[in-house]
Specification:
By secondary structure, the protein is of the alpha+beta class. The chain has 1 helix and 7 strands; from the N terminus they run αβββββββ.
């Protein structure tokens, strides 16, 4: 059996066209991966903000429910200091809704969202409470924020009843 030795000098290398095509394919793969990663990071940030907005809307509902329950405990009318048809603001420490001045919520030292001192956030909350009939309140909460040059809104609505 005869053995042939590989002769490097007789073999030709890559042509310029092959080299350009391979660099192009590699560049497309790298740029595609970068774009996919960028989209994932952007989407993750937006989803996180939407989740925070949903919780802030839920908290707004709970604030109104807390004011209603406090009215019952104090013997006041169940809807005392709750009706607000033009938009109000309130936080977890509120005992009444106050007219909205379109302020940003802050995060206080205990990591609660409030309108008192703290680190400003990108979120604004507007609570609207109307009475479509006796013994019923329509509570609507709207959260607004800006992110990456776009404005976003999250809205929630529920009815509260004078069931007592």
């Amino acid at each position: 059996m005869e053995r042939k030795l590989f002769n490097f000098k007789s073999e030709k290398g890559f042509t310029m066209v092959e080299l350009i095509v391979s660099i192009f394919i590699l560049a497309v793969a790298i740029l595609g991966s970068y774009y996919a990663f960028y989209q994932m990071v952007t989407t993750t940030a937006l989803v996180s903000s939407r989740l925070t907005a949903a919780y802030l809307a839920q908290e707004g509902m709970e604030v109104v429910r807390n004011i209603r329950d406090t009215n019952w405990l104090k013997g006041n009318a169940w809807d005392d200091q709750i009706l607000c048809s033009f938009g109000c603001e309130a936080d977890y420490a509120s005992v009444a809704l106050v007219a909205s001045t379109n302020r940003f919520l802050n995060i206080d030292s205990a990591d609660f969202y409030s309108y008192s001192s703290g680190t400003p956030t990108k979120f604004k909350r507007r609570i609207t409470v109307t009475s479509p009939g006796t013994d019923i309140l329509d509570v609507a909460v709207q959260i607004q924020w800006d992110e990456r040059g776009s404005s976003y809104t999250f809205s929630a609505e529920e009815y509260l009843y004078n069931w007592k």
